[in-house]
Amino acid sequence: MTKYIALLRGINVSGQKKIPMAELRELFTKVGLENVQTYIQSGNVIFESLEKSKAALEPILHEAIKSHFGFDVPVLVLKPEELKQIFDNSPFRQEEKEKSYFMMLYSKADEALVEELSKISYPNESFLIKDTAIYFYCSTGYGKAKCSNNFFERKLKVVATARNYRTMVKLLSLSE
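The chain above was modelled as a monomer; its predicted structure follows.
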């Protein structure tokens, strides 16, 4: 069995795309996954599977959610060691890291778009794009930031999903 973490994009936000976690766990179990557990309502699922390819799991989970709940939800599947690598590669010092956001890209962004975006700067905000992750810190808080997950998606033309430091720590802990 291989352990995985599925990150769902944009569920249970402002009453949109409501997915009860108990129902989501049941759905994941029905498609053949084992030891399914969720963490908070924002679409974090830890599970085990006989499937060795995370790329094979993503469309299965996407279609199961679409069929069962009736709407599209982008699904990113990572192995715990991949999430840990993203977490460990944060460029911020510990104090900033604890208040930062990790945005996982569903595919690698075009280098020209990354280069263009890297020229943008806003006061109190800093970010770094590495491969399939964006590390974002805003000293005034994410709610006041100009750079948001949607901002990065628009500029890079790639689907992304964001998690804060505490959620990353918890997901890594649950997936050990």
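The CA atoms of residues 59 and 75 lie 8 Å apart.
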